[in-house]
Amino acid sequence: MSSTDSSKVDVLVIGAGPSGLMLCTWLARLGITTRIVDKRFSAINSGQADGLQSRTFEIMDSLGIGQDLWREANHMLEIRFWNPDKDNRLYRSDTIVDTKPGLSRFQQATLHQARIEDYLLGYIKKHSSIKIERGIMPESLDIDMKLVDAQDEYPVSVTLRHLPPQSPDLNKAGDSNGASTPNGLFRSNLTADTVDSMLKAARESSHSHTELVRAKFVVGCDGAHSWTRRQIGSVMEGENTDCIWGVLDTIPITDFPDIRFRCAIQSASGSMMIIPRENKYVRMYIQLTEMKEGGQACVDRSKITQDNLFAAAKKILAPYNFSYKHCHWWTAYRIGQRVGSKFSAHERVFLAGDAVHTHSPKAGQGMNISMHDTYNLGWKIAYAVRGWADRSLLKTYVTERRQIAKELIEFDHRFARLFSGRPAKDIMDEEGINLETFKAVFEKGNLFSSGCAVDYASSIIVSKPQSSSRNGSDVQDEAEIAATTFHHAEEVVAKQHLATKIPIGQRIPSHKVLNQADARPWHLQELLPSNGAWRILVFAGDLQDPAQLKRYKALGEALSSPLSFASKSRLGKESLLESLIEILTIHSAPRAAVELLSLPEIFHPFSDEYGWDYNKVFVDDVSYHEGDGRAYENYGIDGRMGCVVIVRPDQYVSWIGDLEDSKEMERFFSGILRV
Amino acid sequence: MSSTDSSKVDVLVIGAGPSGLMLCTWLARLGITTRIVDKRFSAINSGQADGLQSRTFEIMDSLGIGQDLWREANHMLEIRFWNPDKDNRLYRSDTIVDTKPGLSRFQQATLHQARIEDYLLGYIKKHSSIKIERGIMPESLDIDMKLVDAQDEYPVSVTLRHLPPQSPDLNKAGDSNGASTPNGLFRSNLTADTVDSMLKAARESSHSHTELVRAKFVVGCDGAHSWTRRQIGSVMEGENTDCIWGVLDTIPITDFPDIRFRCAIQSASGSMMIIPRENKYVRMYIQLTEMKEGGQACVDRSKITQDNLFAAAKKILAPYNFSYKHCHWWTAYRIGQRVGSKFSAHERVFLAGDAVHTHSPKAGQGMNISMHDTYNLGWKIAYAVRGWADRSLLKTYVTERRQIAKELIEFDHRFARLFSGRPAKDIMDEEGINLETFKAVFEKGNLFSSGCAVDYASSIIVSKPQSSSRNGSDVQDEAEIAATTFHHAEEVVAKQHLATKIPIGQRIPSHKVLNQADARPWHLQELLPSNGAWRILVFAGDLQDPAQLKRYKALGEALSSPLSFASKSRLGKESLLESLIEILTIHSAPRAAVELLSLPEIFHPFSDEYGWDYNKVFVDDVSYHEGDGRAYENYGIDGRMGCVVIVRPDQYVSWIGDLEDSKEMERFFSGILRV
């Protein structure tokens, strides 16, 4: 029986991994009609990704699930380096801190991908009726070029095939090598793509049917073997190496003293990275030197077994003992770094996550950057669907995330080679990798791998001062820059020097401030939940000073004008979002010196139903129980004069100006918002 | 249809409010067969309690639900005092901190009782199959005195009546006074008991039936009108006043500037307490002066209406405006303080919560102390049911919680009178209450009302040094002291001076320490989850010092002896609790100077299945991201010599001694544990 239904949807998401689910958080929160399909009949329950960046926790916290994840995760505080001494015996050569102190209120940690997906699903369920539809594969995709620029049309047609129920479960191991532990080789990059053969088998089945879906936007979050990527003619560019590494998840029984620390081990018998995980588990990344030969695309998988990985690990860790009773998962992969040639077709079909960047997993980046892709994309699609912004806003997804994908690939290139090289024997050994070099690359890599150093280039949503608009990297196409910095943005002047430690283009760092109305301390980022709103952060300076209070009041008047974007972007109480722009004040006068109700109404709006808003004005002052945030100092803002910061819905900084620069703000918003 | 079934259960809990649910958390965690019944057909959904003490958050955190509650609750950081000036105009006379900084990692906060119950239910569901059975009232209770001292018998028989489905829902308002807001008068102490009339109506119904339950233990958590209390002949002793106060839960629309702070207002028109709550709500406790006359037990409820409360509140707050569109709940109560004459019958039937102490709600104590009652009782019942301790352990419930009930009543007596009095007009006004006195009582009361100052007297589970064994209060019966300090306890010598800031009898304060194995910071209390285990905290001192290391190793040998309680109390991996005694080390040497695996095995036990235990040894050192806990200094422990602290399953401190005092520890445990 094969029938074809037809339906419409705002957004069709292909693939329900971390990237697809993160996309759905925005769509759920902003009420966008969405379908999400996945060819797998069940969610993953072992193996795959485990590393969580500081920035990922910040994002999760903006969804209200970061604290739970943080408590459940295994925190990695310190990295221990182990090297061979002159007698080739392993010794602990150095210890460094993992996440740089002060960078974020969260540090690098590990938690199983399945738990991350659970939390994201919980969020989506809370905010919408979006459900994952499983056992479904896309079969054809067409873009109607006549409709591509129309606001309310559905230009993308996708045929979805519902797989017969007896299809193989893609989350079960393809072969067991005689062992009982699930292995992940069938999903690794050592394995050929099975999409076509699955589709063929389904077509021949009498228990499969298709349906036609017409969508405004389609997003391919369908992994390294992305079907969507093929449809839009995007090609993975980069290189593969012959270095093969194994991954082993066990509860280790060992006298190796640093097993609960992240360790970089370069022994005479090969390299290993130790990643401690939750529930007593430890992941080992194991260099499989004996498999270095042979350059064919798919190696003989039968040579890679759990026993081989175990033997290699024991050899590297010797003279320490290592055994285990519990192994949760194992796999192997070939090191390579590749980026998709296209991230989008006509800003109607997008690719995200592994579909556009693949690399080695050791640095725990993949799941994070994949989620950050769609965290960047989701609110922009919602704005386009709702008509709050022109579709051209979506070009910034491509420029911003291609830049990051390329940085990721460069990072991984360095990082992976560092690890697969052999340690230098002495100072004259030019081929081997010097311990100091190793550490230096590692430390630099740690800033990148925290996810907190992402620095988006100038665009209509990032107004960098002219001099720094290109931030020295050549990762962007000239054509893309032209497209995204179109008309308005170049007129907007930002003043980075007013907040020297809030770099425009980066996510706003978080320091503690107190609510003026009840003295409760909050991390600034906690005031910026991912609800779709832009924020104007008014660092109002010292409101005890009459001159400064006057400047603040003048800004209030400008923002209160019915012609201001702050006024025009109000959506009303019945909407999911009351306004596209929220105004928050952080002043620097002593808390006791300021009376909230004496400040201009726009900064703590009145409602006939709820009275004054007590959650808009904050102060940089000492808290009773949680110390002193010293926000102005930490943000590099003058305590008397303050400044104004525009923050995007995804917490990245767009613009910085003076309290008098309301015209610049208007120009900035007029380049983006359609209200 | 009326039939009588018969069944057996370890524990029958009567009443599913916060007190009954907290009891079930222990019973659920320790696998005790339990039934919990409630006459109400639905859980509460408006009104009732809202205040949460610091200590309550600590307890909730020991159940793994404290952090979620903390995030959801409204935090109260500061108290503002308002008084009439010489022209009788209200002014802000003072500001003080609410919870004393450093007392706890949690501060006073508010969250609706229904949410607390939700979290407790979630915990119970996670750990057991215990379910609340609703629409059930007990009808008779008998204790078989022949069986009362037998370990495995069921001496308490209770007949339970299943109410007909059409019984009135006790959580709906009895009368509406013409207003649409639910009111709580029907549950207030202005209303007569309806238990008998409900039972009578049920007996006459053809849709009601009974069953007979035989239990080892029965606990009455059935509130101020406790049926259980009557069965065991316990009488409420104390006094009632004629002071009537109203309670109004609204989202206030007001220009009163401190509406989001806890305020104590004593205006010329009467007193008011403002308690800011979650979701924009504010609770007002309003003195109803015009209703002060008439002393009958139940006043004419028709005189107390929502409009009357609103009018009184407006008058007190004048000249500030006050109105509202949203009112969630309102009620009124008569101030009084009473304590039950008996808390137990034969250590087989117990009373807890409002069933044994009633008082005025203004200080936000009731729900907390009711939950603390059963938090004290639950693990003791579980120990008795499992045979891990003699039933005489349960006598300490009575002594400890009666002491607290009496302290509560004394506190409330002072606190309520303070509030119902009128403010002094000037220094010569002897009848009025002086502002300074008011503040002083308030500040002192705050320590009590944090719940962190509870100080249990000497007993078999609290070994205070002889000199301080009676802590100056006369709240205990001599007979009770004799019963609970029987044989062993008096031989056990504790050394308070070794940890001057860990008072024996009080809950152990919490400071941060680091895990030796992975450098992760933990609050000490986080290492003491409520799982039923006693803890031996070995403050091992400076393990860099060979002499100190020798002392530590000697202690390890003593604890490792097969005859030690640490050995004998092992229950095995298959049990819900691996051992009745867990040994944790906190040393004070630099973290980097100690290798975990070089320490004696007993302090980080080895398992054939899981390898070494990495979660038993901690260190007082600086963390990378969360500062310096300075645990030894904050605990008043010598950094070189250390000490040993025994902590009860409920986090209260039992004993302190030297590393050489293993014989004293053995004597201590031999007075309690039956292993």
3D structure, described in words:
- The structure is a homodimer of 675-residue chains.
- The longest helix of chain A has 26 residues, at 395-420.
- In chain A, 25% of the residues lie in helices and 25% in strands.
- Chain A has two domains: 4-449, FAD/NAD(P)-binding domain (3-Layer(bba) Sandwich), CATH 3.50.50.60; 466-670, Phenol hydroxylase, C-terminal dimerisation domain (Glutaredoxin), CATH 3.40.30.
- In chain A, strands 1, 2, 8, 9, 10, 11, 17 and 18 form an eight-stranded mixed β-sheet that branches. Chain A has an eight-stranded mixed β-sheet with strand order 6-5-13-14-15-12-16-19, with helices on both faces. Chain A has a seven-stranded mixed β-sheet with strand order 21-20-26-23-22-27-28, covered by helices on one side.
- By secondary structure, the first copy, chain A, is α+β, with helices and mostly antiparallel strands.
- In chain A, helix 8 (366-386) runs antiparallel to helix 9 (395-420).
- Chain A contains 15 helices and 28 strands.
- Chain A starts with a strand and ends in a 5-residue tail after the last helix.
